[in-house]
């Protein structure tokens, strides 16, 4: 007789691997990649809007002129020329910085990973918005942080709630290692931290001596206004700023960065070196070439227009089709609408029914470390064309109608405990 | 031995079990290539029929789970276009796929199966859920097991210890299907018995695989990801019980008219009695699936076994 486990390495894993278990919801997302399903789930930028032929010419030119550099190792801090260009990009949002203080990373996701690696020991508290970016929760879980959520409202992170949370933690003798915040067009809630709150948030963090990690993936993708001044622009000592070209150029390049005070930056370089030795020189030089030779500001405007049209298609469809009791926000930029379901409905329990109706979304539970979020879901409008968005919302509305009927019949929405990671993979459309 | 030309492994589809199916399909295709078969993996999508028409394979190995894959539909289509395939014919799939129907047929053939009732969601809506559920509990007692009448991978399935949990279990079930099968819960040892028909040998039961979940349930996560689930192959059963389990699986296989391969899920209760739960016509073939474990316990190589099944069916 042979005994075996479906994972025979189980007894060997580190404690930090314990939460790395996909859920049945994650498996459902496999269906979302089929064209029959309108996916409002993933956050893939619409890279087809790039002038791909020009990018191709540029790549060929890069290879013929600097091929030996592009295929070589590079310093872990990243290409100096690119770091200077990143400063130009950040200047659009009020940051004055030196390229010396930048570490180029594999997307801003790696920047977050490195920052967490530097600061978080198992059991340390990290503050994050409620809801917050799923990828951040994955990173924090991997480093065994304890995530304490701070509520958002329509104007972003709520200062009073932050103050209360910090005061409460202080009475417990706990100091958070940092506050993780996505101030602009937040993923997943779509809200933006009001200008009047920015100084207040900084002030609270100063009072309680808490670092901020400002993740600004969407700041340049506003539809209705000039880019807002970021937190880092007003505090170079307390704020670690994370940026990325994933939304303004393309995520396949995997070029992001961290801007940090010099002491932290020095450690980030060493941490990056131990993690990946060096980032891809090829994609760094490609971005450098793109920024130097292409009208990138114009391209960002093109993206803004494209996403604005899609947002409008989604908002108009929601307005026209969703049953009473659903509420949602009106994002001024970025990729996401956060929809709250009628009372008693459960976005996670509803997910299989949505897939059966050929529409996908991400249940709200994926964006909370504490299992809350069942009453809400994230819809993304960045990838599908407007007519697909309208069709997706039509299917979603029918799904919600059905759930309301089920709630009326059974007096419950079938909420059940379940294990595993609810978030979709990064390749989900 | 007959030479086998190229074959198509069919996996994916649009069911909830797409991901599992893709993993099963990749595993079967890899194993077949290892056995020297020219195997390509294809999704069941709008390009499939053109592909099969343009370059007809010698046979198809369907590893589609869930609806279409297991309800006979895709096999009907394969028969329409005259492409041979491994596995059960459409009529048999339809019987097996519908769990209440399968239970009735297997019970009629002499195998115990837990008392149950199958009810569509409309019944609860039209007659009042509380009243209907009261009747169910009065008849079947507690604990109960609720699952979609059609479907697999334990999606939408849950055990109910207390009547107060039943409504939530019903809604969870209806998230994955329109008809619920509510069974009396039978405690005991959970086993799976594969049946395979290799040329010249007739239908043979493979060694039973015993499933011991680390937590309290063998749910989707326990099936495919959490490493805690432990399998014993052959199952830790007395020879007499093991023989009875093999007999039950063969009875199910024959009673439903299944062909080539199947996997029957059974419970052995504390007194050693066998209870039929359900049968799968397209069993999972992932690295954590039960049938490959049974193959191994029987000394069968996955690649050559799948190849032999294909040779048997190939044109």
Quick description:
Chain A is 41% helix and 15% strand. Chain A is of the alpha/beta class.
Structure notes:
Chain A is of the alpha/beta class. Chain A folds into 2 domains: 2-49 and 298-410, Alpha-Beta Complex (Aspartate Aminotransferase, domain 1), CATH 3.90.1150.10; 53-293, Type I PLP-dependent aspartate aminotransferase-like (Major domain) (Aspartate Aminotransferase, domain 2), CATH 3.40.640.10. Chain A has 12 helices and 15 strands. In chain A, the strands form 3 sheets. An 8-stranded mixed β-sheet of chain A has the order 3-10-9-8-7-4-5-6, sandwiched between helices. In chain A, strands 11-12-15-14 form a 4-stranded antiparallel β-sheet. Chain A has a two-stranded parallel ribbon with strand order 2-13. In chain A, α7 links the parallel β7 (178-181) and β8. The longest helix of chain A has 26 residues, at 296-321. Chain B is of the alpha+beta class and 315 residues long. Chain B is 38% helix and 22% strand. Chain B has 12 helices and 13 strands. In chain B, α1 (18-34) crosses α12 and α6 packs across α7. At the A-B interface, β1, α1, α11 and α12 of A face α1, α6, α8, α9 and β11 of B. β1 of chain A pairs antiparallel with β11 (230-233) of chain B.
